[in-house]
Amino acid sequence: MTETTHDPEATRHGPGRILIAVYGVFALAATARAGVQIATKFHEAPIAYILSAVAAVIYCAATYALAKATKVSRKVATVAIAIELTGVLAIGGFSYLAPDDFPDATVWSHFGQGYGFVPVVLPVLGLLWLRRTR
Q1: Closest Cα partner for 58 from 74, 78, 40?
Q2: Whole-structure pTM over 0.90, yes or no?
Q3: pLDDT digits over 44-59, tens only?
């Protein structure tokens, strides 16, 4: 189908499959990391670990919405990925301004430095893919 036909399933074809896979990996990694951090050392940096959990929820939502590929899920994916981009930029900057609040790395701290800066690039690619496939 062409771009003008508004095929909602376009998000899960071609490069979209790779995007969904990367989001899935980040959903799993962020969920596991947040779970361990909250369960074992929440008292050390509660703000950072709660933000890790929020990131995990957003990655899960984006993964599901991109894979579901309906008109409604495209909107959900767009909102989730926009929140993700805002979060990684805000938390990335805040983690440099208040390093004591981030004694342990989170997915979004330092703009995702601990993850090879993929967390700051991924939402940009996600939004571009959603735009290209609309």
Answers
A1: 78
A2: no
A3: 888 889 999 999 999 9
